[in-house]
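Severity: low
Component: inverse-folding endpoint
Summary: output formatting inconsistent between runs
Steps to reproduce: submit the following structure tokens with default settings.
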């Protein structure tokens, strides 16, 4: 785990895609997009049908690593409104076991319109002064954790192009990387992300590399 501070809270990156919040003993993940492969299969685009199992195994691993007793999923939990109904018995059993073992909360995202199969649902939450929602609200001045944009840092290192999931942070807003096995990504410096994190004096990409926090500047306000 890679610790860092945000809005007066101590957080940790877990396996590069999740956050652990020690004070709340909570794991935070965004954009699981469960059953994405089965959604595309209905339209003739065949993908390996094990994305939900892989994603839930990642969640289970992060819970084991952190000992988290609470899990907050920050929206776009299933890829579509019927996704929960398409879970195979193995994935459904995994999800049920995880939701029984933790206080599991689904925050609604733009892909989420159906009923949740386990745990509890919320539009957004205020947890100990941090706002948990799916999509960053421009103009929000309260500390906020969100997902939605699937940010990835794209850089050139020694002539090679490298792309890695990352978080994007301003002083009081933090966008998590997508956690799901079949999720793509948006350039962390995309204007849509920079705009979503306003008001801000600066916006940086954050990621854990070899146990250390790496911070890349993406935007600075004009002096």
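Observed output (run 2 of 3):
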């Amino acid at each position: 785990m890679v610790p860092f501070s945000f809005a007066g809270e101590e957080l940790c990156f877990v396996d590069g895609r999740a956050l652990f919040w020690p004070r709340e003993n909570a794991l935070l993940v965004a954009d699981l997009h469960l059953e994405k492969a089965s959604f595309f299969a209905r339209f003739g685009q065949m993908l390996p049908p094990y994305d939900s199992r892989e994603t839930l195994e990642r969640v289970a691993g992060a819970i084991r690593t952190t000992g988290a007793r609470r899990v907050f999923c920050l929206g776009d939990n299933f890829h579509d409104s019927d996704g929960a109904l398409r879970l195979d018995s193995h994935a459904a059993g995994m999800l049920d076991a995880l939701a029984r073992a933790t206080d599991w909360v689904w925050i609604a995202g733009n892909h989420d319109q159906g009923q949740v199969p386990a745990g509890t649902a919320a539009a957004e939450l205020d947890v100990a002064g941090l706002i948990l929602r799916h999509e960053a609200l421009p103009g929000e001045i309260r500390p906020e954790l969100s997902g939605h944009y699937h940010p990835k840092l794209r850089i050139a290192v020694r002539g090679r192009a490298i792309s890695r999931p990352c978080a994007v942070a301003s002083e009081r807003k933090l966008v998590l990387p997508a956690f799901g096995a079949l999720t793509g990504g948006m350039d962390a410096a995309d204007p849509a992300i920079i705009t979503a994190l306003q008001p801000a004096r600066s916006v940086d990409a954050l990621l854990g590399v070899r146990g250390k926090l790496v911070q890349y500047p993406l935007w600075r306000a004009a002096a």
